[in-house]
Amino acid sequence: MMCLRRCLGMLLLTCPVLLTACSDDSKGSPDAGSPPVVAWDGTSTPIEEKSDWIDRGVFAPCEFTPPLGTEIDCDTPALFNLSQCNPSALRTASRHGIYQTELRPESGEYPWSGAGLVLPEGGGVGTSNFDRFTRQQFDDQGLLLTSVFTTTRGVAIKTALAGCDVPQPHHITGCYAVCTNGVLTEKGTFDADRLVLSRGEAESSGGLNLVSESAVDLGFPVDVYVTKNHAYVVSIQLKPDMPTGGLTVFDVSDRNHPVLKKVISLPGDGYWNAAWAKDDVLYVATKASGVILYDISNPGDPTYIRSVPSGAPPNVHTLFVDGNRLYAMALRPAQTIIFDITSPRDPVLLNRVVFSSEEFVTSYPHDSFAYEGRLYINHTDIGFLVTDPSDPMQVKELGKYHYNRQYSHASAVGTFAGRTIAFEGSEQEGAHLRVLDVTDPANIQLIGEHRLRPTTSIHNMILKGTKLYVAWYQEGVRVFDVANPTLPKEIAYFNAYRETDPKRLGFVFEGVMGMRVPGDGYVYAVDTSRGLLIFNEL
């Protein structure tokens, strides 16, 4: 994920910690009664781009009464006007569990982010996006929650929420206020969704079945690469006071019973976010060491070779291998690093490419996908870029797709009815699947989309033929038939997210993240709490 400004939600506006795993090689539940997907003839009509957040209107008839700009302490219950609320309904709401909260500013403008609420069973102190509540009242008298986050620059951000109603099962609505260094900077209403219960789905559907589950003890597991009958799981260290990340190796010769073979971590480098292999070399993207190379000629016992590039190592976040090219996406400094890996053990640095924009100076390349001579780059705020890397010293930008408050994060590209189609997703609350016709990079068209809940986010996706596998954080693994890409049809899912799993933190960027479908009949996914999950391939 990054100095990811959206990563920990509104309470962590300057978050220094989370940037989670990405890229890959290669609306509700499935409707068994709907007609089959008909092969696409290549014709389409562009649809309107509505961005990730769609304003659903005011959530509750309450308000925090002072005007914006007032010097005030947001943790002042008397300043919430709850006279039109339904306190009796709040008495029926679940008082423990994990809620993801959609915040709607009073102005109706695009919200900064949401907030995750963890309410422990048995009355323990809860948290909001890692921060312990300084006020926690949830009883027959109502709901009042307050937390404070202090940035690395000493800015104190206090958020207070007051419950108002329970308009539907497992949802709580109310109003909120945010004070920054004692000044009211935002207020509005919220809808809190207890994710594990609100949809009412089964654990799985469509024949996607869990074959095995293997815990990963190292850090916060985020990505996996599978080769030589071994799964290489990488993990990150979310915060300095949390467990370090690194590499966990499983022998998956028997997919029903993976065997832990080795665990690797390096002092001072606990953020390992992506992995890829070519021949006998495993490449690992790290925050402190750039790209680390491991010899996997003995696949169960990786041995360190060295790190690249030389000099001050960049913070490399994701990787993509295409033939003899290795593309490394670096966050800081922001750049796309291109290596020649004709000799896998001896990468040759070809270029460091920088795509800049005066308007989006914080943007960086988050992910990439190489296909038929083009490199597609998810360049966060700048947008989804189509480039020509045939001459690595003169990488050309051919076109881009951009929309309001974009955070382009992951993609997969293929050919359908003679058209080049990209499946793209951002990473934030409401992030959903977009289908783009990129045949003409200078005139990219949005031709389809699929949305799930407004409080969840896509993380990664893999296209295999006409099936698209999507790692959708708390929504688990979702599988779509995209034979007609303008109308993605969900055909299977597995809900991996459970509130009771260890290491659940209650923020939007947890759940199923990394995923591989290597063509051996199985789907390998990484859940941030449950570890390595292996499913049958559909």
UniProtKB/TrEMBL annotation:
Signal peptide location: 1-21
Record bears the keyword Hydrolase: no
A Pfam family it matches: LVIVD
Coiled-coil ranges from the UniProt annotation: none
Keyword terms, alphabetized: Signal
Protein name from the UniProt record: Lipoprotein
Annotated organism of origin: Corallococcus terminator
